Amino acid sequence: MVAPAPKIVYQRPASLATRVTHYCPGCTHGVAHRLIAEVLDEMGLREKTIGVAPVGCSVFAYNYFNHDYVEAAHGRAPAMATGIKRVLPQQTVYTYQGDGDLASIGMAEIMHAAARGEQITVVFINNAIYGMTGGQMAPTTLPGMVTTSSPGGRDVESMGFPIRMSEILAKMDGAGYIVRRSLHDPANIRKAKKAIRLAFETQERGLGFSMVELLSSCPTNWKLTPVDALTFIEDRMIPMFPLGDYKVNDEIANLRV
Predict the structure, then answer these.
(1) What structural domains and CATH numbers belong to the chain?
(2) DSSP string of 66-103?
(3) In whole angstroms, what separates CA 233 from the centre of its chain?
(4) For 196, phi and psi rounded to 5 degrees?
(5) Nearest to 177 by CA among 126, 214, 122
(6) pLDDT tens across 168-213, in order?
(7) How far apart are CA 125 and CA 212, in angstroms?
(8) 163: Cβ–Cβ under 8 A, 6 or more apart, which residues?
(9) pLDDT tens sequence across 13-33
(10) Beta bridge partners of residue 53, listed in sequence order
């Protein structure tokens, strides 16, 4: 009797390169990469996709995906993505940015890309700190949070409050899909994947600028174990950055039914 062929239930997405990443142990960048790759495969977009990586922990993202990728200057990924999409409107174009990049040096670029309704997708990794450059305070750093540039903790009176990018960009008329999800447990990771797919659907249907903000861990710079870093997201980050849909085009909303 011939045994039935084994059923494949888990394998590397074709859009994800067979390569060891440079990310620290416990960092959830790898989870975000896999979700993007799975979505591109499932939507059949890999051969027409162009990713844009700026400076930051994502600086080597072009090594980790099996689709076209370009490198942008720090904070300038939305500007480069705008140019690519306008010249090649048939391509699927997305940026992969951290909070220091997107909400600090790149604040002007992301705001105006959303205001213009550029048909690009942004995957925004929010880990509340500058990861690559040494753990400095970022625009998203929590009140009282210790970083290398706020050793006494972030004092909101002198250093300001965290910036909530999803809430801000949702006010832009050109935005079609703006949501915040988290990568701290399996249930939320599944929700994050659905959001990434809907963000790409927004672009494919020409419904405006789309962004998925993902609350992510940085155990090294937070000086926490990987497990404790996931707890930090749930206990500390989500109260400051509530998960949810901040703007969803009606046509995309109907896809979720």
Answers:
(1) 29-255 (3.40.50.970)
(2) SSEEEE--TT-HHHHHHHHHHHSTTSEEEEEEEHHIII
(3) 15
(4) -60, -40
(5) 122
(6) 999 999 999 999 999 999 999 999 999 999 999 999 999 999 999 9
(7) 9
(8) 103, 139, 140
(9) 999 999 899 999 999 999 999
(10) 71
Per the CB < 8 A criterion, the answer to whether 98 and 57 are in contact is: yes
Report the SS3 class of residue 251: helix
Alpha helices in the chain (DSSP H): 29-43, 77-87, 99-100, 107-116, 156-159, 165-169, 186-204, 219-222, 226-232, 238-240, 250-255
Asked whether the beta carbons of 127 and 99 are under 8 A apart, the reply is: yes
- Nearest Cα to Cα of residue 216 among 196, 237, 199, 235: 237
pTM for the model: 0.95
CA torsion, ordered 168, 175, 172, 71, to nearest 10 deg: 70
Tell me, what's the pLDDT at 11?
Answer: 84
Three-state secondary-structure class, residue 216: coil
Rg, the chain, Cα only: 18
The residues near 169 (Cβ < 8 Å, ≥ 6 apart) are 110, 111, 114, 175, 178, 209, 211, 246, 247
- Minimal CA–CA distance to 55: which of 92, 21, 105? 105
Beta bridge partners of residue 95, listed in sequence order: 52, 122
**What's the CA gap between 192 and 36, in Å, rounded?**
10
Two structure tokens written together for 155? 């004092």
